[in-house]
Amino acid sequence: MVNCIRFFRILMAAGLVFAGMSGTSGATPLVTAAALQSGNEEPAPAKTKRGVIVIDDFGSDMKGTKEMMELPFHITVAVMPFLPSTKRDAEWAHKVGHEVIVHLPMEPIKGRKSWLGPGAILTSMTDEEVRKRVNEAIDDVPFAVGMNNHMGSKATGDERVMTIVLEVCRERGLFFLDSKTNYRSVVPAVAAKVGVKTVDNHMFFDDIVTQAHIAKQVKLFQKHVHENDLTVAIGHVGDSGKNTAAVLRKYYPDLEKEAQFVPLSKVATVTAEGGSRRIP
């Protein structure tokens, strides 16, 4: 009997009191065999792959704005300047913990001028006009830490224009996300010369607005995440907004198993000329 008591005291000292053993009080927590096994396990390894989800076109109270803001995970919110809900959307995003960037309207090769919105950067502008508009756009979007191009397939291929845009970004402490609307973008080369942090977009979720297509793109995104250290993708509020938010909410738990999802600023770097290409 004495030996049994001594053995019990040894177990108590080690914290190994098992459920079902008589003589324990309700004040003493019971440690199950499963809990003991869990306590001996090695901590899960840190995720080395990183993913970024950027949502464009905030600023006009577009469809899906509320649904995007309420997603239970981090997104980077790209807000267009000089629009009715520009300041509200930027402040809203910041308040709920999303990162904010300026979604700068820039001249496309093709596309309606009405899609650009106010304050667009055109290749016909003088250096002074471009610089002034970029600074004004940054001033109009509260909490912005970066910038990306809205449309802009012509402007992002123009070395003179992009030199000015990226110089202003450097001066104001912003990075630049190249949305890759132009495969011949000069952003990587100019950014390397100017010395500003940049990131490349890899794909779009909702170039077609149906849930079926968005789900297909999310699966392609997941494949890219599995095969690469960094994956950046862009979605939109507007016609596709509610669908994109719903699909992302549905598939995010699977995506999160593969990678750590971070703010865009965490992956922006000063890169050598070349950059990465957007996947289909």
Task: Give a quick set of tags describing it.
9-stranded parallel β-sheet, disordered N terminus, 280 residues, 38% helix, alpha/beta
Report how far apart the termini are. Answer: 75 Å
Tally of alpha and pi helices: 9
**Biggest β-sheet description:** 9 strands, parallel
Mean residue pLDDT: 84
Q: What order do the SSEs take from the amino end to the carboxyl end, as H and E?
A: HHEHEHEHEHEHEEHEHE
Number of strands: 9
Query: Helix- and strand-based class?
Result: alpha/beta
- The helical percent reads 25-40%
Form type: globular
> What value does the Rg take, in angstroms?
25 Å
How would you sum up this structure, described in words?
The protein is an alpha/beta fold and 280 residues long. 38% of the residues lie in helices and 17% in strands. Strands 1, 2, 3, 4, 5, 6, 7, 8 and 9 form a nine-stranded parallel β-sheet that branches. Helix 6 crosses helix 7 and helix 8 runs parallel beside helix 9. The chain is globular, with a radius of gyration of 25 Å. The termini are far apart.
